[in-house]
């Protein structure tokens, strides 16, 4: 179960939307590194079947570790912004926010133009609901204002 600590940043809808240019670049880098990691891993598996390519195998392993380190740096950037990476394969992120008396997630996926959905902490992507049904009428309260 996901829980939000008292120190967790809570975004207002417009604030979360305003971070999208930066978040989008970071998430795009994460998805790219994830894809390259998969390719490197597949290369390692293919090369491992041939005993004559131990040196190439070590290069691929080093490349995989480098990509993992780079991706971890991008994930840390998101975390420092208060944004949570949910799926590095598709670029799915959540922005913690307050809706009425509870904490929820504003949900965004790489390729979406803006943040148009939210969901409960436990419902995930499949439980997304339109923000205009809840957030446009009721302002989101930031943790610093609460």
What is the topology?
Elements: H1 13-18, H2 20-47, H3 54-81, E1 84-87, E2 92-99, E3 102-109, E4 117-120, E5 129-130
Antiparallel strand pairs: 1-2, 2-3, 3-4, 4-5
Please tell me about this protein's structure.
This protein is an alpha+beta fold and 146 residues long. The chain has three helices and five strands, in the order αααβββββ. α2 packs antiparallel against α3 (54-81). The radius of gyration is 19 Å and the shape is elongated.
Q: What is the rounded distance between the termini?
A: 24 Å
Largest sheet: 5 strands, antiparallel
Q: How big a fraction of the residues is strand?
A: 15-25%
Order of helices and strands: HHHEEEEE
Q: Could you report the average pLDDT, rounded to the nearest whole number? A: 86
Query: Helicity level, as a percent range?
Result: 40-55%
The spatial strand order of the largest sheet comes to 1-2-3-4-5
Shape: elongated
Number of domains: 1
